[in-house]
């Protein structure tokens, strides 16, 4: 039949329209649903409301007789009333123009559920104009319009299965590439690839749930694992602080690197948790006051948001705030620093020869892996892919080599000493090897899943830190040997002798200075005394002897003597402090302290 043969009123009566922003009039809910169908009964109005998921109407104070205005209801409620109004006339064609584009997640779900009911009834043909994948995925046939032309058409499965289709490109804005590939491999069937039946009868499953990412990529798992890693890092930091008195004398460089690695990871975790919780708090401040399912991308980049070819912003599954270049640079520098410190911990051990050998062979891999952390700042997908490949290869190689070295040393080279039960040596060894195997498995798991699990790098780093801490003490307890311990004790004793010699030299210099000052003070007092006596004799010869003059002259020598006595008292006080410090009791206490320190080092 030719549509031109029908009158406009006849074919318009068969079409129902649901606009993007429906209009409600002042009046009752029933009158708004029945607008344009004045002869509709209450039963028909309630049935249309039931089909459109308008269950909120029955919770109103007066039900369908509740008075409403243009803005009395939420966007989702107005949209469902518009669907009920369109369904009341039982249209043959239902046109929906971006019916869910301005709705929140909860309202969109209810509107889409109403659309599913309409489609399942098989009595109404729906023409859905939409950008959101959650809305168009339920359609039996999809037509892609671009620049006013139809560029592609087919079922959802067919369009998804085409690698270079325009529909797939638009879909990539709302789903990451990994999810799209999984969807293609799971949904593509021989019939769809060979151009089978285009009139697909619909889905016998929920396509949205099938495209849902794994729960391991969700926000709750991200917060949980970041908290676990934070706790493990804090416990390791406490261990390092409490073992500093033993660790530092044995290997200062190793201790400084371990402490720096733990602190850098601790700071990185604090920053990550702040970013995640801040974004979650922002999401909770918007209707429907719920958190996003997907984990927060850290750091967010320009690649997380996009727009369509005509400039219209596409709906996003997740749209975080985009960071500036300076913020991204600071974040990547922090990651590179943490990565370098963590990887170097697997290389430094107190043995001089082995440390030189390991640093010469494996340090370039650690430096290269850390440098690759800085390249994603270019925002070029090619550079990012190359950097990821190099970094993952270096990390996996370092982890595998370190695990192999631990196993060879513990099971072949030094099996007898490494698995001694005294001092917890065997426990340290077992824990170090188990963590080494776990870190190797996580590094190889991270290669194909680098863009899926944002919490995985921190988990790998904390496992490597604990592995290095336990492995180092295993090395000290079971592999260093008596000769190396005696050498360390000899070095500590030599440092102690040097400290005592420096203290003795300072004491001798102090006593010499005090003696010199004492002699100078006595000489100065003798000169003053001689001058005073000569002045007194001269006064006696020139002036007639007088009782007052004689008494004044006779009192001057005692004044000089009192000044000399004060200087001698100060010098005597300093000498007394030196004698007390070098007294046998204090020397015995100092000797006992050094013996106790040697015993600790030997243990």
Task: Write a brief structural summary.
This protein has 603 residues and is mainly alpha-helical. The chain has helices at 8-12, 29-33, 42-51, 75-88, 105-121, 133-136, 156-161, 166-172, 177-187, 190-193, 207-210, 219-242, 244-250, 252-284, 325-345, 352-372, 381-413, 415-418, 425-446, 456-478, 481-542, 547-581, 584-602, and strands spanning 15-18, 27-28, 67-68, 93-97, 125-129, 142-146, 149-154.
Topology at a glance:
Layout: H1 8-12, E1 15-18, E2 27-28, H2 29-33, H3 42-51, E3 67-68, H4 75-88, E4 93-97, H5 105-121, E5 125-129, H6 133-136, E6 142-146, E7 149-154, H7 156-161, H8 166-172, H9 177-187, H10 190-193, H11 207-210, H12 219-242, H13 244-250, H14 252-284, H15 325-345, H16 352-372, H17 381-413, H18 415-418, H19 425-446, H20 456-478, H21 481-542, H22 547-581, H23 584-602
Parallel strand pairs: 1-4, 4-5
Antiparallel strand pairs: 2-3, 6-7
Helix pairs in contact: 3-4, 4-5, 12-14, 12-20, 13-14, 14-15, 14-20, 15-16, 15-20, 16-17, 17-19, 19-20, 21-22, 21-23
Summarize the biggest pleated sheet: 3 strands, parallel
How confident is the prediction overall: mean pLDDT?
75
Spatial strand arrangement across the major sheet: 1-4-5
The geometry reads as elongated
Low-confidence stretches: 177-203, 302-319, 539-567
| Proper CATH architecture of the largest domain | Up-down Bundle
Give the strand content.
under 5%
What fraction, in percent, of the residue positions are helical?
55-70%
Please give the CATH class of the largest domain: Mainly Alpha
How many distinct helices? 23
* End-to-end gap: 99 Å
> So what's the oligomer here?
single chain
How many domains in all? 3
Radius of gyration, CA atoms, in whole angstroms: 43 Å
Could you tell me the CATH topology label of the largest domain. Answer: Rhopdopsin 7-helix transmembrane proteins
Could you spell the SSE succession in H and E letters? HEEHHEHEHEHEEHHHHHHHHHHHHHHHHH
Topology, number of strands? 7
- Class by alpha and beta content: mainly alpha
């Amino acid at each position: 039949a030719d549509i031109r043969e029908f009158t406009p009123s006849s074919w318009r009566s068969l079409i129902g329209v649901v606009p993007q922003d429906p209009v409600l009039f002042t009046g009752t809910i029933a009158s708004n649903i029945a607008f344009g169908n004045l002869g509709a009964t209450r039963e028909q109005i309630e049935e249309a409301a039931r089909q459109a998921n308008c269950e909120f109407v029955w919770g109103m104070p007066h039900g369908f007789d509740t008075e409403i205005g243009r803005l009395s209801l939420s966007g989702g409620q107005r949209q469902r009333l518009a669907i009920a109004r369109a369904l009341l006339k039982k249209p043959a064609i239902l046109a929906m123009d971006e019916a869910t584009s301005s709705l929140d997640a909860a309202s969109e779900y209810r509107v889409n559920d109403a659309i599913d009911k309409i489609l399942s009834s098989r009595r109404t043909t729906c023409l859905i104009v939409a950008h959101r994948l959650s809305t168009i995925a339920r359609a039996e046939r999809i037509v892609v319009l671009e620049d006013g032309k139809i560029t592609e058409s087919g079922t959802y499965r067919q369009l998804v299965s085409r690698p270079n289709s325009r529909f797939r490109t638009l879909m990539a804005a709302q789903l990451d590439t990994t999810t799209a590939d999984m969807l293609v491999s799971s949904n593509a069937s021989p019939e769809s690839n060979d151009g089978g039946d285009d009139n697909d009868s619909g889905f016998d499953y929920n396509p949205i749930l099938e495209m849902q990412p794994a729960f391991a990529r969700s926000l709750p798992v991200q917060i949980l694992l970041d908290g676990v890693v934070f706790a493990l890092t804090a416990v390791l930091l406490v261990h390092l602080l409490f073992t500093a008195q033993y660790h530092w004398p044995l290997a200062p460089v190793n201790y400084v690197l371990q402490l720096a690695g733990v602190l850098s990871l601790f700071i990185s975790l604090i920053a990550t948790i702040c970013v995640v919780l801040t974004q979650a708090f922002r999401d909770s401040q918007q209707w429907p006051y719920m958190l996003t399912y997907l984990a927060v991308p850290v750091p967010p980049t320009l690649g997380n948001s996009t727009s369509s070819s005509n400039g219209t912003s596409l709906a996003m599954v997740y749209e975080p705030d985009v960071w500036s270049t300076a913020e991204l640079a600071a974040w990547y520098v922090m990651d590179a620093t943490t990565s370098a410190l963590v990887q170097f911990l697997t290389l430094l051990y107190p043995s001089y020869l082995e440390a030189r050998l390991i640093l010469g062979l494996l340090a370039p891999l650690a430096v290269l892996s850390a440098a690759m952390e800085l390249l994603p700042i270019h925002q070029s997908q090619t550079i990012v892919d190359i950097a990821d490949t190099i970094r993952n290869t270096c990390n996996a190689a370092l982890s595998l080599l370190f695990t192999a070295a631990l196993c060879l040393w513990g099971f072949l080279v030094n099996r007898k000493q490494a698995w001694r039960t005294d001092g917890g040596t065997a426990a340290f060894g077992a824990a170090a090897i188990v963590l080494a195997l776990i870190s190797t498995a996580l590094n190889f798991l991270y290669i194909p899943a680098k863009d899926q699990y944002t919490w995985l790098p921190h988990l790998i780093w904390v496992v490597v830190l604990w592995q290095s801490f336990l492995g180092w003490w295993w090395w000290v307890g079971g592999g260093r040997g008596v000769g190396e311990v005696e050498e360390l004790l000899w070095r500590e004793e030599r440092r102690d002798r040097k400290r005592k010699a420096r203290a003795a030299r300072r004491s001798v210099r102090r006593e010499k200075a005090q003696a010199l000052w004492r002699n100078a003070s006595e000489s100065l007092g003798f000169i003053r005394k001689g001058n005073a006596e000569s002045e007194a004799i001269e006064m006696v010869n020139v002036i007639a002897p007088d009782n007052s003059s004689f008494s004044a002259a006779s009192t001057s020598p005692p004044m000089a003597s009192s000044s000399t006595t004060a200087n001698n008292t100060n010098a005597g006080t300093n000498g007394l402090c030196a004698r007390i410090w070098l007294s046998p009791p204090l020397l015995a206490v100092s000797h006992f302290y050094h013996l106790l320190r040697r015993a600790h080092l030997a243990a």
